[in-house]
Amino acid sequence: MTRLNITVNGRAHDLDVDESRTLAAFLRYDLGLTGTKIGCEEAECGICTVLVDGVPVDSCIYPVLKAQGRSVTTIEGLAHGQGGGDSDRSDGLHPLQRQFIRHGAVQCGFCTPGLIMNSAALLDRCPDPSEDDIRAALKDTFCRCTGYTSVIEAIRSAALEKQGKAPLPVKDPDVDEPMHVISRSVPPQEVREKVTGQAKYTDDYAFPGMLYARTLRSPYPHARIVRIDTETANALPGVRAVLTHMDVPGENRHGLVYRDWPVLCDSVVRYVGDAVAILAADTEDIAAQALGLIEVEYEPLPVVADPKYAHSPDAPVLHPDHPTGNLLKHIKVRHGDIERGFAEADVIIEREYRTPTTEHAFLEPECSIGVPKGFEGHDKLTVYVGSQIPYQDRDQIAKAMGLQDEQVRVIGALIGGGFGGKEDIAGQIHVAMLATVTGRPVKMLYSRQESLVFHPKRHATIIRIKTGAKRDGRLTAVQAELYGDGGAYASLSDKVMTRATTHATGPYDVPNAKIDCFAMYTNNTPSGAFRGFGVTQSAFAVEQNMDLLAEALGMDPLDLRRLNAQKVGVTTATGQLLRESVGLLETIDKVRADMIAHHADHGAEPDGFRWAWRDEQARKAYAWGVACAYKNTGLGGGAPDKSAADVEAYEDGTVEVRTAAADMGQGIAHVVAQCTAEELRLPYERVRVLLCDTDLTPNGGPTTASRQTFVSGNAARLAASALREALSHSAAEMLDVPPQQIRFEEGLLRYNGHSVTLGDVVKWMKSKGLSPRTHHEYMAPQTQPLGTGGDMHVAFSYATQAALVEVDLDTGAVHVHKVISATDIGRAINPLMLQGQIEGGIVMALGNCLTESFILEEGVPWSRLLSRYKMPGIKHAPEIISHLVEHRASEGPYGAKGVGEIPSINTSPAICNAIEKAVGVRIYALPV
Ligand code: FES
What we know:
Elements: E1 2-8, E2 11-17, H1 23-30, E3 49-52, E4 55-58, E5 71-73, H2 75-79, H3 95-102, H4 112-125, H5 131-137, H6 149-162, H7 191-196, E6 211-217, E7 223-229, H8 231-235, E8 239-243, E9 268-269, E10 275-281, H9 284-291, E11 295-300, H10 307-310, E12 327-335, H11 338-343, E13 347-355, E14 367-371, E15 381-385, H12 390-401, E16 408-412, H13 428-438, E17 442-445, H14 448-454, E18 461-469, E19 475-485, H15 493-502, E20 513-520, H16 535-553, H17 557-564, H18 584-601, E21 612-615, E22 620-633, E23 642-649, E24 655-659, H19 668-680, E25 687-691, H20 708-735, E26 743-745, E27 748-751, E28 754-757, H21 758-767, E29 773-779, E30 795-808, E31 814-824, H22 831-850, E32 856-857, E33 860-861, E34 879-885, H23 907-919
Parallel strand pairs: 1-5, 6-17, 15-16, 19-20, 24-25, 31-34
Antiparallel strand pairs: 1-2, 3-4, 3-5, 6-10, 7-9, 7-11, 8-10, 12-20, 13-18, 14-15, 14-17, 18-19, 21-22, 22-30, 23-24, 23-29, 26-27, 27-28, 30-31, 32-33
Helix pairs in contact: 3-6, 12-13, 15-16, 16-23, 19-20, 20-21, 22-23
Bound molecules: FE2/S2 (inorganic) cluster (FES).
FE2/S2 (inorganic) cluster binds next to loops.
């Protein structure tokens, strides 16, 4: 230990510290300043940035002793006026914090402290930064949610505010018929906590006597376990438990669809990262040391690294219990007469495309804390975790622990991004086991490197697709064969690859289709849910074949899409008649109009639109590429799709809405608050939200399939509507008038010049023994399984995107300058936050298209560091013009349908189509 003198946020500290401590660990764990987040410990993501004597540093690798005698400012200090803070307003916020909220630049919020601290340093040295200055200053600080557009606007506004000037106006997307709170850009829930460092994610919780856990993982993609010896590790002082498969008290399997994933491997490991043993110790250092003392003897087995090989008779069978061997599922779509369809075609395009495994790279690594029954007010085994599916976590924990569901409680912490990657079990069962055995709270926080190796990814696919059309451009047939690499365990492969298959005709009227998909087990990292849920992969193939077809027919690519676009009255390839809410044509028209306007703005004649052009002197080629997409809302396929919500009014005139619907930054918390405020005509600020506590909040189902706005929005809306009914009756009795004549206005219940407050009605109800609380379980309309020809889904969202791309003619470097997007989302519940979803989805997809690939060689991951996984940063973010199109879905809340996934679906093919137009090179395999 060494004595450290340091000033943090204006307060002097003089204390002993461990020489190996980093500044981030010192701030978080020694001083309890958890506003500073750790994303990678590689100085790669930048979200741990703090200021040391005013200079931004990556605190995750900065030795704390290097800060000896210096002054450190963290996000908490910025909020209180340190570090150049101008928290002179009554809200006590620094202009950056205020403007990040105002411009909607905060989603999950995990990166926000880093972005703001870097920006604070920028504004101190450059009070009036240009956009280029901002991009340069923040080039090493990642945000995986926002797409950066709103971040740049927020920083520019903060600079203006600091100079005493008016900040930039906030984007105000055009929406139809704003209501009381619906279709208004209210700030998301807990946003103040997120910009001030007060927001609590799982690793920000600590309990007295808490132990630290680690997992021993397989170094082999496929091997037999010959022997596990934990004796030496167990004997190390400070180690409290070392557990293997023999210690799993219940079923040693978990899984969301198929229960095929061992809690701890017994006889075989099936991928690099499979869990073999877990342990808990007094400190992280002891836990790390003990991990190295567990001895495991493996006998390597042949590796299945390719889904096509997995399907061959020569491949070893990875799950002998699975009835169809390595074939997890064969998924089929049959529609019309495929032979006749191709016989009628004048042009046929057939190509093969490949997409790689990709990584979510949410900025918050997985963390779980288990607290045993009886510990400090915990009356049952409790797990704290940022999960996308709290109730299914509870079910899986209970089964593995040999308990009933009701004997386990899952409490959701804030989630620092998920994008589908926090649906599967991570450390939840392991901490439950360790907490139970040790009788103490146990935290298991994955390092970034462990997170990369462990969690399910987006499926790599091989897609052969054949598209036929008549001379006039009308599609006659689509035939496709897809291989999806499901990896070692099923996870959600069945569902993801089903979506890839059912969407493989694109958002078009295709009279004849035959699609076969083979979801395969391999020894690669498991694949699971990832924004777009399989449709990102099939759209990459579908939309490039559409451009090839347009070229062969000599047609404009948008005209071809317009001619074949789904509209009301069309039947999809799975047999679903589209009866309403099909806004694809409008999205195409809006994008086309903007592309033309772009050229007019740049000096072209009114008819001067060009798809491609060159600047030979600069050695650059430019082109537009377009692509369309559609994506289902909700689980569909016959799965019961429901969500429940409670709404309760209080004597202080506030209301709380409760549902276990996970908010990973996409904003379901503000959606349910807006629905509740709308029904009760309350100011939005008077509605609180409690999410994801299996003892306190009813089941909202998984945050997946772009479903939460639709199902949980409806659950909150209908529970609030029932509460309004109950309040009306009570107010009517109080005022002695008919209940139907009571009007709700801003927290008052009125009748003809008389009024009572909401709080007074609640008091009155309680005095009469009436409950000011309602519950509603919303069940989405029944859907039908694939193959039955009925309605597979409750609604579809539609989108068109155009990408303006520059290609360097000498180096091949691709730069995306601009993306124009139009998205039919039914109803924009919160236009500003919805724009943020679209911008973030586009930039995430831009990375998937151009640079991202989780590389595996014979089942062994090469992409084990964040620095080896190339995500787009702020300097890559294009200008994004985004239009909201609102074709109401009658069953959606106020007409809304899903938006979370669709922006990520058509960006890649739009960019690839642009590259082809610019330089004549067709991209058949991602990343570019
Ligand atoms: Fe930036 Fe989520 S808001 S990573």
